[in-house]
Amino acid sequence: MPRYLPLLLLLLTVNLPAQELKGPDLSNYEVLAEVIAKKSVPGLVIIDARSPEDYKAGHIPGAINLPPDRAFNEYPSKSAKTPLLVYGRPASSDARKVADILRTRGYLNVILFGSISQWKGELQ
């Protein structure tokens, strides 16, 4: 067996965090607020990675709740190309964890918005 084969196999199995989505910068609050208001990104799924209690206290309009402990077992969309925007708590890695889980599950358009504190609009 060639000496580099294990390394080659490892490189082939690594799922790089590709973002296939072309268009608006959804990690920017002003852009995201406009996209939500105009529904200009078809199929956009906004994911709140915080706890159910934090989600119930207020979330970005239209967001679904998907904390890290549920992200392994739930599918936010049937299509791998669906744009998924993920946010969480300030100074927490919950949003990054959920984004990484979604990427490893084959979703191609995972956008990390970051923290709920970046959202300046009204909460739902």
Describe this structure in words.
The structure is a single chain. The protein has 124 residues and is α/β, with parallel strands linked by helices. The chain has one domain: 3-Layer(aba) Sandwich (Oxidized Rhodanese, domain 1). The protein is built from 5 helices and 4 strands; from the N terminus they run ααβαβαβαβ. It has helices spanning 5-13, 29-38, 52-57, 68-71, 94-104; strands at 45-48, 64-65, 84-88, 110-115. It has a 4-stranded parallel β-sheet, with helices on one face. Strand 3 (84-88), helix 5 (94-104) and strand 4 form a beta-alpha-beta unit. The chain is globular and about 55 Å long.
Summarize the helices and strands and which ones pair or pack.
Layout: H1 5-13, H2 29-38, E1 45-48, H3 52-57, E2 64-65, H4 68-71, E3 84-88, H5 94-104, E4 110-115
Parallel strand pairs: 1-2, 1-3, 3-4
